[in-house]
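Appendix B. One record, verbatim.
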Amino acid sequence: MQTISRMRRAAALFLLLAISAAPAPAPAAGRANPVAGYLLDPAAPPDAAINAYESGYRSYRQGLFDKAEDLFVEALRHEPNLIKAHYWLGKLYHEQGRLEDAIFHWEEVNRLNLLIKNRRIALSIQNNEYPAQSQILRVSQKAKEARDAFERGINLLDQGHWDGAEVEIREAVELYPGNHRYLLQLARILWDKGEYQASVKFYRDLLSKRDVSFENFREGIDRMLQKGMHYVAAPLVNDNKQRFASEPGMIEITSRFVTEKKHDVAAAGKLIKKLNGQVIIDLGLDEGLELSDEYSLAMRAFRAGEPLEDPDTGKRIGRAPDKLSADLLITKIYKNTSWALIRREYGTGVKAGDLIEFKKTFR
């Protein structure tokens, strides 16, 4: 097995050398290059791209999608013509609803496959296992259908047909859940209709995107706080503190979550019971969850860190880091409770009384 692994790695490195002279193409009109701006590192070891790709693939298989994305991008920074990294990054973006980004990377797969064919390199790889062309056609059609539904929704909105507009834009979001414009418009329509809990759900999905703008981020946080949904806003603010640190408005946002006296824990809910690989939590339809969250809403279970006190004054100054106990996936939602599947446990495992926070919605 080690010999085969070494042969595969050697073949991969040979292929990289064979096609490394090929120039990267300009992105299609209207489509940005998701990895543009990265420079090759001449000091990197020769197998840096392969190592980053393999680590990214392992992270993808483990469900660590943000880490996988970073590693696939790192692989392409070292070697822009690494087919496998383009394919799996495109697949990851497709699963996240980022359709245009997915198409870009699958088009790269097609370009590189054609290059290999024309140069008659590695006939065993010529018809490889990455079916990018068929997926480009399907995803392009899906993106077009989403765009058409969104435009129908905007036309209905201009005519004052709010319910019809909501139906069409919901369809656009379902087809293209990674499109910021679609998510934002749907969240605003629901807010204006007074359906605040449903609106916050789509704001949450938008703010969970790694490339959300600060303007949209602030709008979503403001509306969550208006309706007292600090438990939804808190993890989003915490996750984006560093990213928006240079934004003047971020200081004002984070100040709303400072609890100097009590150092309260921001949590969406609590775990009530653990049973046969699942848990029951005290969140349900009345707390803002929706039936569409079943098998799509991921959460974390954690235990609050111990209080920290100043050794000289005895004044409480904060808490030790929270201890993650499990990754959960909502599977059944009732009026005031929900069931969740235990996807992974950490440390001593999840227990009744652990706190719950939102993680990410899968589409």
